[in-house]
Amino acid sequence: MEENKLGRARWRVTLPQLQMGEDAESPKINHTFLRDYVTEADVISTVEFNQTGDLLATGDKGGRVVIFQRETESKGESEEAGETGDSGEYNVYSTFQSHEPDFDYLKSVEIEEKINKIRWLPQQNAAHFLLSTNDKTVKLWKVSERDKRPEGYNLKDEEGRLKDISTITSLQVPVLKPTDLMVEVRPRRVFANGHTYHVNSISVNSDGETYLSADDLRINMWHLGITDRSFNIVDIKPANMEDLTEVITAAEFHPHHCHLFVYSSSKGTLRLCDMRASALCDKHTKLFEEPEDPGNRSFFSEIISSVSDVKFSHSGRYLLTRDYLTAKVWDINMDKGPVETYQVHEYLRSKLCSLYENDCIFDKFECVWNSSDSVIMTGAYNSFFRMFDRETGRGVTLEAWRESSKPRAVLRTRRVYTGGKRRRGDVGVDSLDFTKKILHMAWHPSENIIAIAATNNLYIFQDRVNPDTQAQ
Amino acid sequence: MEVSAEAKRIMVVALGKLYSSRTQRGGLRLHRSLLLTLVMKSARDIYHAAQVTAQSAAPKCEPQHPAVNVITTKPAAAQGLQSPASHPAEESRTAGSSTELRCSPHTHTRAENKENVCPSGPAQHSRKRRGKAAAEPDFLPCKKAKLEQGNCHQQLIVSSVLSDYVKCSSELRTAPTPIPVQTAIAAC
C-alpha cells in the first residue's frame, strides 16, 4: 500500500501571522481599531525566496518591500541536513519603499505603485540584489549589511562636526568598531520607459547578466548594468489593435539554458522560444497547446483557459501552468498537451457566472514547484491552498487562516464538500469566502518551507516530518 | 429562452465592467478588457443563435431542422448585426436579407437601449484614439461600410430555396399566408 507522502507531511506554522501594517517604520497611527479592516496598501502582491532560502521578500500594493531573514542558531556555521532544531523562523530584516505612485502625463493615467513581482539575483558577494517591478518600471536594489563603522577621525568629531584645528594635538588612525547591525537598501538601477503596457513578469537569466520583463504584448531583455536601452525579443502587438486576440500573461527564462524562455498567453498556450534562432522571437520554437474539450464549452471558456502563471521546474524539463480551474504540468519535449492535469477547484465550474459577476473569474493564481519537482502547489479561495503529489496524483487542501494557525500548530487538511458522505469540517461550496484568496506563494528552494500570502498576512509553514526534500 | 436571457445578462455585465474599468486606477487593463470583449462576443453569438432557434421552433419540426436552420442563417444574422446600416434597400428585396431586417430592428432596439443606459459611451469613444477597449461593442450598429464576403453566397442559396417554397405553398393554398423565413426553412 503506497503511502501518501503529502498525508504524512505535518505542516506547521513557524511564526505568528504578521500584519503588514504594523511594522515599526510605518507612521504612528493607532492600528488597533483598524485591525479587522484590510488596508488596501497592505495587501501582499508578491512573495519570493532568494536562491538559498535565507531571505524571503514580499511586495505589497503600497509599493513597499519587506525582507525577512531566516534565523539560524549559529550564524556562520554550516548546517547539517535535517538539523533544523528551533531555527527556521523568519524575522523582518529590512523594509523599504520600492515604488511610489506615479502619473503618466501623456496618457492621463495613474501608474500604480503595487509591486507585481520580485526576483532575487544570485548572490555574488556579501550584498544581496533583487529586482522589483510595478506596472511600468523595474528597479534593482542592493541590500547590504553594515555592522562596523569607523571611529576616530582626525578632523571630525563623533557627530561629524568639524573639529577646531587648534585642538588637534596628535594624529590617530581611524579604527573600525562594531555597531548594531544596520541593513541598508539602495536603488542601484532604474529600468524605466521600457513598457507601454502593464508589466506582469520579470525573470533573471541563468547567465547572471540579463533579465527579461514582460508586459501584455511585448517582452524585453535587459542587461543588469544598462538602464537606457533594452532588446525587444517578443512583440505580439497586431498592426490594428482591433485584431487583438491574445495577450502575454507570464514569462520566464529556463533555469539552465540562457537562450531559452517561455511565455504564456491568455488563450491558454505556451510558447518556448530560443533566442539563438533570431533576434525577434515572435516565431516560437515550440507551441504548447491543449485542444479544448468541446463538452466543457461555455460563455467563459476563454476566460478560464487564460494561463495566469507559468514556472519551469527546477530540472528545466517541465513547465507548470495555472489557469482558473486547473494546474497543468507540461513536458517541454511534448507540445501536444500537458502530461498531468490537476483539478484545483472543479466545483466552481458550475458557478462561473457568479464568479464572473463578482470579478473573481479574473483572479490570477500563482503556482510553484517544490525543490525536487515532486510536489506542486497553488492557491484557491476561502484561504485554502492546494498541494498535489505528482507521483500519486493526489491533492490535499490546506488553510492559511489565523484561527487555525497558532505558532507550532499542525495544519490539518481541509475538504470542500462536493457530494457523498459529509465529514465534520467539510466546507460547502456556497459557504466559501471568495474574498479570501490565496494568489501569491513561494516554496523554499531546498527545504519544505512555504510562504503563503493571504491578503495582508504572510504565513510561513514548515514540514517538520520531512524538512528536507532529499529525505523523501 | 434561458440561454438567451443569460447571454444578454452576460453582455450587459461585460459592458458595465468595460465601462467602469476606464475610471480604474492604473489605467485600462488590456488583458481584462480583452477577456471581457471575448465573453461579450461569445455571449452575443449564442444570444443570436438562441434567438434564431427560438423563432424557428415550430411544434412539428424534426430535431435536425432547427440545427440546420441555425447554421445557414447564423452567418446572415451575424453579418446583419454588424452592418445593418450598410445594407441599403436593394438587398432587402431578397428573402435571405429579410432575416437581417428581422434581426436588425430588434438589434437596433436593444442597441438603442444600450445607448440609453450608457449615454456618454459612444460620444466618449469618438474623442479618444481607438484602442482595444475603446472599440465599440460589436452588436452596436457599425458606422463603417464593410464589404460582406463569403457569406453572400450562403444568403443567396437560402433566398432561392425560400422563394421557390413560398411560390409552391402559395399555389397549394387559396390565401397565401406570410411565412416567416425561419419557419419556411424548418419545414423543408
Describe this structure in words.
Chain A is built from three helices and 33 strands. Chain A has helices at 5-8, 301-305, 352-357, and strands at 11-13, 18-19, 44-49, 55-60, 64-70, 90-97, 102-104, 109-111, 117-120, 128-133, 138-151, 175-191, 201-204, 210-214, 218-223, 231-235, 248-253, 260-265, 270-274, 286-288, 309-312, 318-322, 326-331, 340-343, 367-369, 375-379, 384-389, 395-399, 416-417, 427-428, 440-443, 449-454, 457-463. In chain A, the strands form nine sheets. In chain A, strands 1, 2, 31, 32 and 33 form a five-stranded antiparallel beta sheet that branches. In chain A, strands 3-4-5-6 form a four-stranded antiparallel beta sheet, with no helix packed on it. Chain A is globular. The model of chain A is unreliable at 16-36, 75-79 and 81-86 (pLDDT under 50). Chain B is mainly α and 188 residues long. The model of chain B is unreliable at 60-131 and 149-188 (pLDDT under 50). The chains are: A mainly beta (472), B mainly alpha (188). The A-B interface holds A 104, 107, 109-112, 114, 135, 197-198, 216-217, 241-242, 244-247, 249, 266, 299-303, 306, 353, 356-357, 359, 362 and B 6-7, 10, 13, 17, 25-32, 34-35, 38-39, 42-43, 46, 130-132, 135.
Topology diagram in text:
The complex is a heterodimer of chains A (472) and B (188).
Chain A: H1 5-8, E1 11-13, E2 18-19, E3 44-49, E4 55-60, E5 64-70, E6 90-97, E7 102-104, E8 109-111, E9 117-120, E10 128-133, E11 138-151, E12 175-191, E13 201-204, E14 210-214, E15 218-223, E16 231-235, E17 248-253, E18 260-265, E19 270-274, E20 286-288, H2 301-305, E21 309-312, E22 318-322, E23 326-331, E24 340-343, H3 352-357, E25 367-369, E26 375-379, E27 384-389, E28 395-399, E29 416-417, E30 427-428, E31 440-443, E32 449-454, E33 457-463
Parallel strand pairs in A: 29-30
Antiparallel strand pairs in A: 1-33, 2-33, 3-4, 4-5, 5-6, 7-8, 9-10, 10-11, 11-12, 13-14, 14-15, 15-16, 17-18, 18-19, 19-20, 21-22, 22-23, 23-24, 25-26, 26-27, 27-28, 31-32, 32-33
Chain B: H1 2-21, H2 30-56, H3 64-82, H4 95-117, H5 121-127, H6 152-172, H7 181-187
Helix pairs in contact in B: 1-2, 2-3, 3-4, 3-6, 3-7
